[in-house]
Each structure stands twice: as C-alpha cells, then as structure tokens.
Amino acid sequence: MSFPPFHMTASNMNTDNLSHHLAGTGLRSTPQREIVYSVLTSKRDHPTADELFARVKQQMPNISLATVYNCLETLVQCNLVRQVNVERGAMRYCPNLHPHAHFFNETTGETIDVEIPAEVLAQVSSVLPKHFKAKSVEILFRGVVDNQNTPTSL
Amino acid sequence: MSFPPFHMTASNMNTDNLSHHLAGTGLRSTPQREIVYSVLTSKRDHPTADELFARVKQQMPNISLATVYNCLETLVQCNLVRQVNVERGAMRYCPNLHPHAHFFNETTGETIDVEIPAEVLAQVSSVLPKHFKAKSVEILFRGVVDNQNTPTSL
DNA sequence: TTTCTACATTAGAATAGTTCTAATTATTAG
DNA sequence: CTAATAATTAGAACTATTCTAATGTAGAAA
Ligand SMILES: [Mn+2]
Ligand SMILES: [Mn+2]
Ligand SMILES: [Zn+2]
Ligand SMILES: [Zn+2]
C-alpha cells in the first residue's frame, strides 16, 4: 500500500523534491537517496534505520545499511526528514514535515503523528525567556489508546 | 556547591523522601540509592549515568557503574527522577519533578529546565483525540542562547 | 573521449551506552 | 541464628551507530 504525500506545497512535491533540495546544498541526487526517501515517505510511520533498510532492500537488494544511515543523515540535513527519539534504542525517522506532535503508544510501541494547531505551538514557544532562541520544538506524548470502538488510525 | 530541593511539598521533602517512596513500592532504601539520589538532586543539571557515576564515586568510591544504572532505574520507577532524551547517545536524568520543558543549548550541549505554565500544558494536552490517554507530555526546545548580557543561568 | 576530481557507497571494524549474567554481599523475616 | 530475598558488583554481551579504508560513480576539465 502506498500513500500520497502528506501535503502539497511548493516545497513538498515528492517527485524531484529530493533532487531539488539536494541541489540547494551541493549534494548529489543518487539512486540510493531517491529510494530511501521514496520508501520512507510512502508509509505514514516512524521506522528505524534497520526497518527502513529491510523495506528498501526489496527494491534495491544490494544497498547497505551504512548507506541507509548515510542517506538518512543527508535527508535530515536537508530538512526532508525529522528524527524522533521516543525511546532509548534506535532512532526513528519521520517523513511528515508539517508541524506536529508525536504520541507514543506504550501498548504497541507505535509512534503516531498528532496535529497541533499553530496557536498552541505559539503558546508553547512563548514560555521561553527572551534570549533563548529556539530553532525547533518537539512535543511527545506517552500513553495508551482507549479502544472502545477505535477507527484503526486517525 | 549544593542546592536546596526544587520545591517543598508533602511529597517532595528530600530527606526520607526516598525511603518513603521506595517503601511504597516494596523496594529497599540502600546507601547506594540514597547517595545516587542525593547527588543527583544536589545539582540542577541533567547528567548522564556516567557523569553521575563520577560524582557519586567521590562519596562512595567502590560503587559500580552497574549500580548507578540500577539505582537510576529504580528512581525512575518511583517517579523521583525523570529520564530525558535530548540526543542520540547517553540518556540524561532530571531531578526536577515539577512539570517543565527542556531547552537544549546546541552551542554548549547543556540542557536546562524551562518553567511551563499549567495552562499552556493544558492547551497542549487538549490537542489529543479523546481516546488517546496521555500519561506524560515532554516538551523539548533546541536552539541557542543569545548572549547579549546574560546572567549565567535563569 | 579520456582523465581528473570530488563525492558516494560499501563491508566490516570499532565504539558507546546500556543491559545481562552469575557470583557475592546485605537486609529482612521467621 | 538461619533462611529467604533483594541488592550490588565486575565483567561479558549486546545493540545501535559511526568510522575506516577500499571501491565505485558521475560530472567537469582538458
Ligand atoms: Mn532514543
Ligand atoms: Mn537519546
Ligand atoms: Zn511524525
Ligand atoms: Zn529537567
């Protein structure tokens, strides 16, 4: 199963989004980078490098784990992917570039995106003393999902 | 240098706070646990297990790193200490039990506490869909401190 | 088109941080 | 005091990631 991109804006148009962003920073668009990016954005979850490696190998069987790490590092530098740190253990990667929070489901181990209104985000950022210049804010919930009659996802 | 406890309430009174909390969960108060807790709460920072190990050894030279890890795990389970995950790499430990956010200073690598008004926290929690039951919320800023004429800390 | 150069990929070694194991020691209960 | 239980310890094992050094690739210069 495949998903459409999260949102269509001038700066997020899946195809050639990558080479575009890479070009901007003097980095090359390579088959490995394209596939890692495409596989990551094709599913709305937060895989580890290892999990992504397994998915990517289906399309490019000779890619190495080191390359997956290298590609992810590149994508993070280009701001095409976010790192999310929900647990000790493996880093997770998020392809959703919209401002959002994460909810870590302690029962299943899954991390899902939670929309967060710009006004709430502004409220949060306003708590910082004037001379603290935040470049990013991460909001992480931990808890459980009360399954009375739950639609599979939001 | 030593600091007073962050705040005095019925459930946070430094001395015997520990044995009190431990008793509640059927755990023993031991010299190692007492010292790890006391050393951690005596400084307002967010040390790694290794850093804390170094500090604790000054008072108890034969304590082992494994024990520091064990004690920290116990303290986290008792809700006397919070884990904070600001970077890939070593876990950090926070002795401040008040609801607060963290600011990771990318220049210095230091993580400091930022007070966060209850109303803002409530705002943040309100963004969750009804069937998501959050047990905790973590807010982490990353950025730099604009040092025009900065007092050493807040 | 060949050559030069810089960049990217790769396998495997090395590293860092943490957890596990098995032996010893300490505390509590009977 | 003895037995049972829990905690500590040193070191081995483990996991995730980064590093190293060799090889591959692709565009730019000639
Ligand atoms: Mn993590
Ligand atoms: Mn971390
Ligand atoms: Zn996400
Ligand atoms: Zn803190």
Write up this protein.
Two copies of one chain form a homodimer. By secondary structure, the first copy, chain A, is an alpha+beta fold. Chain A has two domains: 13-92, Winged helix-like DNA-binding domain superfamily/Winged helix DNA-binding domain (Arc Repressor Mutant, subunit A); 98-143, Ferric-uptake regulator, C-terminal dimerisarion domain (Dna Ligase, domain 1, 2-Layer Sandwich). The first copy, chain A, is 32% helix and 20% strand. Chain A contains five helices and five strands; from the N terminus they run H-H-H-H-E-E-E-E-H-E. The first copy, chain A, has helices spanning 17-24, 31-41, 49-57, 65-77, 118-125; strands at 82-84, 92-94, 100-105, 111-115, 132-145. In chain A, strands 4-3-5 form a three-stranded mixed sheet, with no helix packed on it. A two-stranded antiparallel sheet of chain A has the order 1-2. In chain A, a hairpin with a 7-residue loop joins strand 1 (82-84) and strand 2. In chain A, helix 2 crosses helix 4 (65-77) and helix 3 packs across helix 4. Chain A starts with 16 loop residues before the first helix and ends in a 9-residue tail after the last strand. Strand 5 (132-145) of chain A pairs antiparallel with strand 5 (132-145) of chain B. The first copy, chain A, binds a DNA duplex (30 and 30 nucleotides) through helix 4.
